[in-house]
Amino acid sequence: MEDNQKKFHIAACASLIGLIVLSILWELVLSPLRPGGSWLVLKVIPLLIPLRGVLRHDNYTLQWSSMFILLYFTEGVVRAVSDKSGISSALAGIEICLSLIFFFCSIFYLRPLKKAAKNAQKKDDIQKA
Fold first, then answer.
1. Which residues contact residue 48 at a Cβ distance below 8 angstroms, ignoring those fewer than 6 apart?
2. Which residue stretches of the chain have pLDDT < 50?
């Protein structure tokens, strides 16, 4: 694995874990919709699904989770614009940043693997011809 790939993987893992921690703190402590916390903390559960695969370098998990994370980007944009609380808008900005970091780092992590797979496919096609 290249050094850059390792850095992208570490950043993707860190941003996913950061997004999980942010979501829990946001909805239970920092700026919940209702005093004492809200059921919106359950939005963390879908983030836990790809966590194991992302930590284990599973390429398939990184592929689908890079598209899945865009739901959290969208939520961040909506809440940054619509929430009246200043802290909630700031937390939404952090959510936007973390989701974009995960998205781009997973894409850049997978890029060399995709190129290698395409080259291998071309070689197979040439040999079959």
1. 20
2. none
The pLDDT score that the predictor gives to residue 126 is 77
The tally of domains found in the chain comes to: 1
Which residue range(s) make up the domain with 69? 3-128
* Residue 50 to residue 65: CA distance in whole angstroms: 6
Q: What is the dihedral of CA 8, 114, 60, 104, to 10 degrees?
A: 30
pLDDT in tens, 62-83: 999 999 999 999 999 999 999 8
Is the CB of residue 65 less than 8 Å from the CB of residue 53?
A: yes
Residue 99: other Cβ atoms inside 10 A: 24
pLDDT score recorded for residue 62: 96
Burial of 72 (0-12, 13-18, 19+ CB in 10 A): buried
